[in-house]
Amino acid sequence: MGVLPVPAEVRAILLDIEGTTTPIAFVQETLFPYIKDNVKEYLRAHWEEEECQRDVGLLRKQSGSGEEELERVIQAVVDNVHWQMSLDRKTTALKQLQGHMWRAAYATGHVKGEIFEDVVPAIRKWREAGMKVYIYSSGSVEAQKLLFGYSTEGDILELFDGHFDTKIGPKVESESYRRIAASIGCATNNILFLTDVPREANAAEEADTHVAVVIRPGNAGLTDDEKSYYSLISSFTELFLPSST
Fold first, then answer.
1. CA distance 114 to 26
2. What residues does Mg(2+) bind to (predicted)?
3. I want to staple 111 with a disulfide (CB 3.0 to 4.6 A). Which of 105, 122, 162, 242 is the partner?
């Protein structure tokens, strides 16, 4: 690791979030525990709201519950949420409730999106050099915008030209990167993708996208083969843009 020259044809930088812009620990030790610790209180506070009832209805096909059963119904939903999270389920119902809870947590200042300190200065330089910058994460576009809109660096949404989630396709399938290139309006080899996951890097590379694997504290280790095969960076500042000289 050190200085990594960016190929001259690169016009856009595509960023993963977890383990790339943001510590994995933030997701595992802040975001997910927040749901488990606060779901009962959140349901009690928002129970009468239509959005909350839609979330609950998705989580649990209810057969009419009387007022006296409210606590039992809430507890059943809480238990279901904890159970799904313990199995790392990614159901639409769970993701929807989590998204709404995180939205409230960010907006009230209970949670701030953590960003590695090299990220914002580097992105500003890339943009000054004429680069477009996009996010591609398995978290929903709404969750991405919350993280960057209420971050430890303030609202940094203006730094991004667009957001992609798994609606465009899974991150481990090369076709997803072709779709992103088409959506951005460039060729796949005009994109540099930064990720901490070799399987994603491999899929992007198969689509002729340039790739660098990001080494951050808390990320999964790489095999010796992966270390010797991929371009590695431990900070966004290690990317050297020829166009900025």
1. 7
2. 16, 18, 196
3. 105
pTM beyond 0.85: the answer is yes
| 224 among annotated binding-site residues | no
Say whether 88 counts as a known binding-site residue. Answer: no
Instruction: Determine whether the annotation assigns residue 138 to a binding site.
Output: yes
User: In the numeric block, which tokens belong to residue 91?
Assistant: 């159901």
- For residue 16, say whether it is annotated as part of any ligand binding site: yes
CATH of 28-107, one of 1.10.150.20, 1.10.720.60, 3.40.50.300, 2.170.150.70: 1.10.720.60
The residue behind tokens 């979030």 is: 17
pLDDT higher than 90, residue 219: yes
**Architecture label for domain 4-22+113-244:** 3-Layer(aba) Sandwich (3.40)
Domain assignments of the chain as residue spans, ordered by start:
4-22+113-244, 28-107
